[in-house]
Amino acid sequence: MSSSSTSPPSLNSIGDVNALFQTAKKYEELNVIGTGAYGTVYKARDLHNGGQIVAMKKVKVALTEDGIPLSTLREIALLRQLEAYRHPNIVRLLDVCHGGQSLERDQQLVLFLVFEHVEQDLESYLKRAPGPLSENRIRSMSYDILSGVDFLHSHRIVHRDLKPHNLLVTSSGRVKLADFGLAKTYDTEMKLTSVVVTLWYRPPEVLLGVSYNTAVDVWSSGCVLAQLHTRAPLLAGSCDSEQLHCIFRLIGRPAKHEWPQNVSIVVDSFPDYPPQDLADILPRVHPQALDLIKGMLVFDPAKRLTALDCLEHPYFTDHAPH
Amino acid sequence: MKDVIDVMALQNNRREKRLPDYRSAPGHSLATNFIFECGIKLGLQPATIATAAIFYHKFFREADKNDYDCYVVCTACLCVAGKSRDEPVRPRDAVNVAHNSINRGAGPLELGEEYWSWRGAVAQAELLVLRLLGFSLDTPSPHKYLLHYLRSIQEWFPQDQWRSAPVARTAMAFLQDFHHSPAILDYRAPHLAVACLTLALHVLGVSVPLASTLEDDSAWYSS
Ligand SMILES: Nc1ncnc2c1ncn2[C@@H]1O[C@H](COP(=O)(O)OP(=O)(O)OP(=O)(O)O)[C@@H](O)[C@H]1O
C-alpha cells in the first residue's frame, strides 16, 4: 500500500450535478400566486403526478462556509416530520427540492417548498363573501385556526406571522395554516425589503421588541377571529407606534406594573386610554365568542389564553360537533 | 460462550492491523465501512453514524452507483447526518478524515487545489443528498429502542450474571453491523432492536431468567 496521496476521486461526476437537477425537473411553473416578504409562491404543475396543481414556494438561502446552515436544514427536516401527522388544519407539504448551487452566485441556494394548492386565502375569502358569515361558519373556521395553532405549539413551533393572508381556505371551507416553521431560515435570509409587512396582527410584545413565545400566535388568532365577524381588520395601524395606539385604544393602556422592563418606549408616552367594550366593535357577536376573543387579546402574554385553553372554551365545547 | 468472545476480540485485533484499502476495493464494496471508520474518527455518536449509513443506502436506492463517487457521497452523508442530529462536523475535518482514510498515512491535506476540489465535491454532494432525500432526514432510531429493551431486560438478571455476558455490547454491535446492508431500510426500528437483542441472547447462550414461567415461548424479546 503506498502512502503517497493520489488524485481525488473522480470529481467530474459530482461537479456536474446541475445536469441532474435539470433531468430531475418535476414541476412546471404556471404563474405567480403571490409574493411574500421572503419568497414568491407559484402555481405549478407536478409533472410526475398526472399534472396535479401544486403551490411552490421559492426561498433563497445563503450558503455558509459549512454549506447549508444547520438551522435551515433542521427547520425543513422538522416540517417534513410534521407532515407525517397529516393534520387537517396544516397545509400539506408535498416535497422539498432545490435548484442546486447557482453558478453565478454560488453562496446561494434556491429552495422549492412544494405544497398542496389551496383555492384561496382567508383574505380573499372574506373579501368575496357576499355578506356576513354565518355563526356556524365563523365557529368552525375559528376552531380550525386554533386547532392548527395548537398543533404547531405542541411541536414547539411558533408561527409568528398569522394573518388572513397565510390562512388558506379550501373549497369545502376548512382553514389550513401555511407559511410557518422557517423563522431561522428567514432570519438569516434575503428579505425583500420592498414588501410591506403588515403589523395588524402583531401582539404588543413583538411591537415593543421584548421576547416572545407561543402567545404571539394566540394574539394574532384573536385578531383574525374578530375579523371573521366583521370582515374588516380589527386593529389596522399604519406603523409600529400607530399599531400600539390602536391596541391600547381597544384594550386600554396597560398599568405601569404590567409594562415590560427594558423597553425603550415608556408607558406614559401613550395617552391613558380606557378599555373599550369589544361588543361595540363586534355587533351581534355570540357572547361566548366575545368572551373567547377577549381572553386572547390580553396585554400580558402570560395571562393570555393558550391555544389549548381556546379549544376547550365553551364557545366550542357547548356546540358540538367537532 | 467464552469462545465466541475470544473470536470477536481476535477479529477486532486483526481489523486494526489490516485496515481496509478503499482505493483498491471494487466499486461500493467498502462504502459503509468507510462511513463507520470516518464517523468514528470524527467522534460522532453511533446513532449519528448509523444515520449516515441509512442516508447512504437511501441515496443509492434512487441514484445509480456508477454515476457518483462513492467516498464523496459517503463523506457528504456524514455531514448531513451530523447536521440533522445536531452534531455538526466541520467540513475541513470531514475532508481530512476522508482523505486520510483513503490515502493511509498521507498526513493532513495542504490547503491546496486537491483540498478545495475535495471540499467543493463534498459540498455539492451534500446538496445532492438533501435533494434526493427530499429533506426527509428523520430516521427511525433502533438504537433508542434497543436501549429501552436492554434496560428493561437487565432488571430480570442477577447483577453478576448480567455483567458476565456482554449482552448490551453484542446487541449494539449487531445493530451497527446491520447498517452495512441496505436491507436496514426494510425493517421498522423496534423490530430491528428486538432482532438484535434476540440474536445477542442466542449467540451468547444466555436465557432470560423467569422466562420459563411464561405460558409459551412467545416472549416479546424472542422472534
Ligand atoms: N398552498 C398554497 N396554495 C395556494 N396559495 C398559497 C399557498 N401558499 C401560499 N399561498 C398564497 O401565496 C401568497 C404568498 O404567500 P407567502 O406565504 O409567500 O407570503 P405571505 O404570507 O404574504 O408573506 P410572508 O412570507 O411575509 O409571510 C399568499 O397570497 C398566499 O395566500
UniProtKB/TrEMBL annotation, chain A:
Lineage, broadest ranks: Eukaryota, Metazoa, Ecdysozoa, Arthropoda, Hexapoda
Alphabetized PROSITE patterns for the sequence: PROTEIN_KINASE_ATP (PS00107), PROTEIN_KINASE_DOM (PS50011), PROTEIN_KINASE_ST (PS00108)
SUPFAM superfamilies: Protein kinase-like (PK-like) (SSF56112)
Designated name of the protein: cyclin-dependent kinase
Protein EC: 2.7.11.22
Family: Belongs to the protein kinase superfamily. CMGC Ser/Thr protein kinase family. CDC2/CDKX subfamily.
Molecular function (Gene Ontology), one example: cyclin binding
A Pfam family the protein falls into: Pkinase
UniProtKB keywords: ATP-binding, Kinase, Nucleotide-binding, Serine/threonine-protein kinase, Transferase
Reactions this protein catalyses: L-threonyl-[protein] + ATP = O-phospho-L-threonyl-[protein] + ADP + H(+); L-seryl-[protein] + ATP = O-phospho-L-seryl-[protein] + ADP + H(+)
PANTHER family found in the cross-reference section: CELL DIVISION PROTEIN KINASE, CYCLIN-DEPENDENT KINASE 4, ISOFORM A
One GO term describing the cellular component: nucleus
One BP annotation, GO: regulation of G2/M transition of mitotic cell cycle
Superkingdom to which the source organism belongs: Eukaryota
Ligand binding (ATP): K57
Start and end residues of each Protein kinase domain: 27-316
From TrEMBL, chain B:
Organism of provenance: Leptidea sinapis
Pfam family, one: Cyclin_N
PANTHER family from the UniProt entry: CYCLIN
GO biological process, one term: regulation of transcription by RNA polymerase II
Gene3D superfamilies: Cyclin-like (1.10.472.10)
InterPro entries with a match to the protein in the record: Cyclin-like_dom (IPR013763), Cyclin-like_sf (IPR036915), Cyclin-Q_first_cyclin_box (IPR048055), Cyclin-Q_second_cyclin_box (IPR048053), Cyclin/Ssn8 (IPR043198), Cyclin_N (IPR006671)
Alphabetic keyword roster: Cyclin
Entry's Gene Ontology molecular function annotations: cyclin-dependent protein serine/threonine kinase regulator activity
Name of the protein: Cyclin-Q
Similarity field: Belongs to the cyclin family. Cyclin-like FAM58 subfamily.
Cyclin-like domain boundaries: 33-131
